[in-house]
Amino acid sequence: MYYWLGLWQYWDSLKGIEFEYVGIQNLEWSKKGNKWEKSSRGEESNLFLQIKRTLEFGRFEYKGGDKYYHYFFKPNVPFLAPERWKEMVGYMDISKQNLLPRIIWAGLPDSSVFWRVEITNFNQNFSIAPPETKVKEYEVLFDTTIKINSMIDMLKRRLNLINAKYKIGKKGKSITLKIPSYYRLEDIKEMLRPGELIVYGVTEDKLEAERALYLQSEPQKPVYITGQIFDSKDVKDCALKFDNMNRPFLVIFLKKDITFPEIIAFEIDSVIYGITRLDFPQTLSKITIYADTTYFQMNLLKGYTGQMLPSIEIKPITKEDN
To answer: Is residue 316 over pLDDT 50?
Structure first.
């Protein structure tokens, strides 16, 4: 999900043209005057794709800097001035605090035409929503031996943990779920899958291992498992936080102290999401997960970890869009 606010300013215009985009899944909304227009997702609302294209062919030269690491590069922005694109120059400032880009500038040497991006608030807990959207309704089918109010409580906790917008209701013995239409059926199934957590000890010697599993991000790399340390039943709570380099990580709070080996692996629904290495074997009441995945996926991990669900089926009531 992206929210992008900016200004197109041309050399012969002092005022410029303001723009505002919201991009979610495969849809985008662009503001035209006081109204929002909805369309299929384009590059206009994908800032990071534009940054990647601007930088991907550049040859970087470090120029020092006191507050930031300052780099010059040859940008890939021919659309700015097609007849003078070979003259284009660029620079980028990298924060010394978190090693993330702060300003990216590309344009003509005389600044008559340029493209500038300033990035702040990396990985902050902001809520992004489209200015207008439809709601779709689904029926949630579950094991009838589970009390309906208990099932509703579990669904609410899972959806709250992943910061989803929703409404849950009852129709007789059935549960209905209303959720914004930018979530596809596949997304909802992913959000409401069981999310069973198992944490294993890991050894680097395959002769000591009980079996081998594989990382989601590196399916060719085996992880040698020594035994189970804890599972979902041992989790008291969880929280998503950020380190000093603005990388998201998950903190799992446990119901009791547990003794951990030096290396542990986190499995959810039979997939290894991450490995954590401790300084030495120790007894802890909480543990941290770093995973090589997106912020959205980390939010899903928080939901899975904080509230395991029984197997359920999601049946559309509102007709799916073509």
So the answer is: yes
Phi, psi of 141, rounded to the nearest 5 degrees: -100, 130
Indicate the pTM of the whole model: 0.72
Q: What's the rounded Cα separation, in Å, for the pair 62 and 92?
A: 10
**Rounded to whole angstroms, how far apart are CA atoms 10 and 106?**
14
CA atoms of 90 and 101, how far apart (whole Å) = 13
Q: How far apart are CA 117 and CA 105, in angstroms?
A: 7
Q: Which residues, in sequence order, are CB contacts of 105 under 8 Å at separation 6+?
A: 90, 91, 92, 114, 115, 116, 117
Give the helix/strand (H/E) hosting 32: strand 27-32
- Rounded Cα distance between 252 and 274, Å, is 13
N-to-C CA span, the chain: 22
Q: Retrieve residue 315's tokens.
A: 């049946």
Report the DSSP beta bridge partners of residue 239. 251
The Cα angle at residue 32 between residues 26 and 37, in degrees rounded to 5: 35
pLDDT of residue 124: 63
* Average pLDDT of the residues in 270-283: 88
**pLDDT tens, 55-94?**
776 678 888 888 899 999 888 777 777 788 788 889 999 9
- Taken in order of first residue, the domains within the chain and their CATH numbers are 2-118 (no CATH), 135-193+309-316 (3.30.70.1510), 197-306 (3.30.1360.200)
CB 195 within 8 Å of CB 308: yes
Structure tokens at 250: 């998950």
